[in-house]
Amino acid sequence: MAIKCETFSFEVQAQDGTARAGRIETAHGSIETPIFMPVGTQGTVKSLTPEDLRDEIEAQIILGNTYHLYLRPGLDVIKKHGGLHQFMNWNHPILTDSGGYQVFSLKDLRKIKEEGVLFQDHIGGAKHLFTPEKVIEIQETLGSDIMMAFDECPELPCTEDYMQKSMARTTRWAKRCLEARTRPDCALFGIIQGGTSEKLRKLHADELCKLPFDGFAIGGLSVGEAKDKMYETVEFTTPMMPDDKPKYLMGVGKPDDLIECIARGVDMFDCVLPSRNARNGQCFTHSGVVNIRNAEYAEDMAPIDPDCDCYTCKNYTRSYIRHLYKAKEILSARLCTLHNLHYFLTLVGQAREAIIEGRFEQFRLDYYAAKED
């Protein structure tokens, strides 16, 4: 008999059209949805401290990477600290991915078998075998509040025949993940695959959503498909997912994507984009993207975003931040990351408020109007 999570719950508090506002309860606190999760691949959101995440950005949950943390520092080190929360001094919820995407991205360095995936790591080339059971063991050692089932993430495009075989394998692995659970304080989400085919998504959702997962994710998108195809896939997939459980869109996260996919019923998002692009000098604002490295900002005395109240915008000019970037000072990455993640978390917070007040569609229209001004 598969163990159930005793510390996890979800309720929908308001709905406006298809957009939803809800609350997730976990062993390490509450999460108000819709929510964006900053990505802390190596046990850190690059350039920021946990205090920054908590106090400046007000992040409610962050994401850790099973594959990377397994390889370095390794489970023995994290176990010695008592888990990932204590290791990185973050006493709030953590979601960990299964490592599947990273393993399958290795391409020539991995071999898929029914047992699992045999792969060579990107650090020293050592061989490892990730099975559904091993992936759950790793995530339970990390102490994840939300674990992800081990899935195969097929490359797009692929044949319908291969996709169906891959989906069937993912379902078999999902059942093994459920059976492998031992901790009642770690929730487990299943991942729906099927590419951009409505028929295949329905086939996989019908199989997977019968299983006793605590939530469900849409996987296999934002891997090169056209934007309208992604939105279309989200639109026909979210109604296939149980309404009484969180709906998570994996790896998607431009601001427009958040707005459009919240409108289509998504509750949870993650993406490296706001932090990665910040390190390259790209900042997201209410009026569009600001590339702070551009010469036009050399003497610009305005903040990155005049409509933003983040630490960066309250204290520094575009001119100063551009100087830091051109001088290759690490403070540039820190200030831009603080701004971008604050913008993303504020955006989903405003969307939540609009849903609760029954004015989400007007909020959506105002969001696009501000970018056109």
Automatic annotation (TrEMBL):
Pfam family, one: TGT
Listed transmembrane segments: none
Record bears the keyword Isomerase: no
Active-site residue list: D97, D270
Keyword Iron-sulfur: no
Catalytic activity: 7-aminomethyl-7-carbaguanine + guanosine(34) in tRNA = 7-aminomethyl-7-carbaguanosine(34) in tRNA + guanine
Residues annotated as binding Zn(2+): C308, C310, C313, H339
The entry's keywords: Glycosyltransferase, Metal-binding, Queuosine biosynthesis, Transferase, tRNA processing, Zinc
Cofactor: Zn(2+)
Binding site for substrate: D97, S98, G99, G100, Y101, D151, Q193, G220
Molecular function via GO: metal ion binding; tRNA-guanosine(34) queuine transglycosylase activity
Annotated pathway: tRNA modification; tRNA-queuosine biosynthesis
InterPro entries recorded: ArchSynthase1/Queuine_TRR, TGT, TGT-like_sf, tRNA_ribo_trans-like
Enzyme Commission no: 2.4.2.29
Domain tRNA-guanine(15) transglycosylase-like as annotated: residue spans: 18-370
Cofactor binding, per record: Binds 1 zinc ion per subunit.
One GO cellular component term noted in the UniProt record for this chain: cytosol
Region of interest (RNA binding), ranges: 251-257
Family the UniProt entry places it in: Belongs to the queuine tRNA-ribosyltransferase family.
Function per UniProt: Catalyzes the base-exchange of a guanine (G) residue with the queuine precursor 7-aminomethyl-7-deazaguanine (PreQ1) at position 34 (anticodon wobble position) in tRNAs with GU(N) anticodons (tRNA-Asp, -Asn, -His and -Tyr). Catalysis occurs through a double-displacement mechanism. The nucleophile active site attacks the C1' of nucleotide 34 to detach the guanine base from the RNA, forming a covalent enzyme-RNA intermediate. The proton acceptor active site deprotonates the incoming PreQ1, allowing a nucleophilic attack on the C1' of the ribose to form the product.
PANTHER family recorded: QUEUINE TRNA-RIBOSYLTRANSFERASE (PTHR46499:SF1)
Assembly: Homodimer. Within each dimer, one monomer is responsible for RNA recognition and catalysis, while the other monomer binds to the replacement base PreQ1.
Protein name stated in the entry: Queuine tRNA-ribosyltransferase
Organism from which the protein derives: Bradymonas sediminis
